[in-house]
Amino acid sequence: MYKTDFKNNYLSKDKQKTSLVLCGEAGHGIQTVEGLLTQIFKLGGLNVFATKEYMSRVRGGSNSTQIRVSSKKVLAPVKRIDILIPLDKSALPHLKERISKDTIILGEKEKVSPEQEILDVPFSRVAKEIGNPIFANIVEVGIIAAIFRIKQQIPLECIRKYFSAKGEKITQGNIAAIKRGYELASDLIKKGSLAQLSIPVPDFSQGIQEEILLNGAEAVSLGAISGGCNFISAYPMSPSTGVLIFLSQHTEEFNIIAEQAEDEISAINLALGAWYAGARGMVTTSGGGFALMEEGVSLAGMLELPIVIHLAQRPGPATGL
Questions:
Q1: In terms of CB atoms within 10 Å, which of 50, 166, 245, 266 comes out highest?
Q2: Following CA atoms 168, 171, 172, 178 in sequence, which dihedral angle do they give, to the nearest 10 degrees?
Q3: Which string of DSSP letters, residue by residue, matches 170-194?
Q4: Which keywords fit this entry according to its UniProt record (predicted)?
Q5: End of a domain among 193, 210, 227?
Q6: Contact 202, 17 (CB under 8 A)
Q7: Residues 292, 190 share a domain
Q8: pLDDT tens digit string along 170-198?
């Protein structure tokens, strides 16, 4: 059932749980890679658990995503990194405390320090050959899927679905990037490079393909819908914004009113007004935003009005953890 293009001579004996990390600047498409890989792993028959680390900026910084891949259920992140793909020179210094002698680093030699041992994979050069440097992250998706023995048809179908709205030219470019990623993996296997590394790759599990893959914002949103939520107000603040976005995308389907307020004080008062009018309202925010809502919480108590507050915590000085 799980026929693949590769032999398993590069796999380690301890292959039940693998920690895969990608790290680079904001704008490198790390979230796109995470979204595609988690879907590809699930459809391929593997359990996945992904978590993000990102700075408060649109471009630059050192952002990372960890994807745990396993033959069994995964319920939490780990500090350990089994496979690391650094996308810029700041990745290794940023993650140095998590990198061990057993960490396998796949990437481009020019993006790490000269003394660092790395399996050199020319993602950028291959992307330029395809026609656009932006395809580099999809080449990464291809080589990772191939290393984990996923049938090539699965990432190709995911690519077609993910990029269909962006036009045929973009879709075909990304399809070519996936295929080149598989070719790179095949070349590394033939050369024996992967065999020397003993990469930990989990076994496949039956029934995973039919399970639901959700992120935290989607899970909270579906829970709110199930509870009868028909009004949401919020001022965007990561990591709570995903709930507002999800519910805003389904307003007609579930008869929900979604309002982006000018600040958090307005957001909670809008929700209180909705409850007073008979709706089931919710606000979504994070630590600093919730601090601004305190008088609204007091008002809810004084008026004896219910209020549902989704407090999406994030680590940092004075932000709630």
A1: 50
A2: -170
A3: HHHHHHHHHHHHHHHHHHHHHHTHH
A4: Oxidoreductase
A5: 210
A6: yes
A7: no
A8: 999 999 999 999 999 988 877 766 665 56
